[in-house]
Amino acid sequence: MANLKEIKLKINSVKNTQKTTKAMKLVSSAKLTRTRQLSEQARSYANKINDVLSDIANRVSKVHEDGNVDKAFIPNDNPKTVDIVFVTADKGLCGGFNMATIKTVNRIKAEYENKGAKVRLRVVGRKGIDFFSFQGIELIQKVADLSSAPDYDRASDFIDEVVEDFNNGITEKVVLVYNGFLNMLTQELKVRDLLPISLEEAETNEEESSMLDIEPDDDEEVLNELTAKYINFNMYYSLIDSLAAEHSARMQAMEAATNNAKERVNTLTVEYNKARQAAITTELIEIISGVESLK
């Protein structure tokens, strides 16, 4: 059995760890509250862009007899080159948050490669960069310190390179992967085709559609501008949503670590008391034995 001094040092060490994890949980909780509000606002804006873009794309496709609006709206089920854009955190200590995204990326990568497609990886977040760099897998585009501090301009600059390769025919499909916020206790992996844009039929009636004061001749110009905003904002929103999910995951991980530390302190305290009682018993036996030997 370990001596009293060693057990006491272990108890103090675990208590210090418990204080740290508890503080990290509180910090993550405060950050989550702010990021969650921003995420909800951004989601409303993204949904509105999607509705307007859907409506205009449908209107333009009806004007063109061939239905060919733009390359960005032409489905491609058998792409030869696929870019996977994914978001991870810059920091750890958030449970399986990052590995869930990385495993999904590897799965999608394998699926496309099995179909004969070339897959290229573009990553936001230090954890994703470190993982694939360690595996020796090439990353054609990578940026750190963006997922921890989402910025619209930097997000636009990042995704602009992806769009440029798509427009130039270098890549034929772009898939966006990130771990998003579902609720305080759950994160949800989100996989979507960013390019070509897959839009559902607009759920707007004629009265709602007429609210868009746009001349028919201007539809294509407006569509191009909205398409750029749609892609840029979806990239930015994925960063915000991922950050909210990261704070949620870290809050849960730190709560679990705090509870484990508390249980460990209780276990060590029991061990300390047993060792102390054993030491006292041994001293008493030695005293009694000494007295008996003097008789």
From TrEMBL:
GO cellular component: plasma membrane; proton-transporting ATP synthase complex
InterPro entries linked: ATP_synth_F1_ATPase_gsu, ATP_synth_F1_gsu
Stretches assigned to coiled coil: 244-278
Keyword Coiled coil attributed: yes
Subcellular location: Cell membrane; Membrane
Major localization class: membrane
Signal peptide: none
Alphabetical keyword list: ATP synthesis, Cell inner membrane, Cell membrane, CF(1), Coiled coil, Hydrogen ion transport, Ion transport, Membrane, Transport
Source species, domain of life: Bacteria
Membrane topology category: Peripheral membrane protein
One annotated GO molecular function: ATP binding
Listed GO biological process terms: proton motive force-driven plasma membrane ATP synthesis
Endoplasmic reticulum found in the keyword field: no
PANTHER family xrefs: ATP SYNTHASE GAMMA CHAIN, ATP SYNTHASE SUBUNIT GAMMA, MITOCHONDRIAL
Chain's role: Produces ATP from ADP in the presence of a proton gradient across the membrane. The gamma chain is believed to be important in regulating ATPase activity and the flow of protons through the CF(0) complex.
Oligomer status and interactors: F-type ATPases have 2 components, CF(1) - the catalytic core - and CF(0) - the membrane proton channel. CF(1) has five subunits: alpha(3), beta(3), gamma(1), delta(1), epsilon(1). CF(0) has three main subunits: a, b and c.
Family that this chain belongs to: Belongs to the ATPase gamma chain family.
Protein known as: ATP synthase gamma chain
Native organism: Malaciobacter halophilus
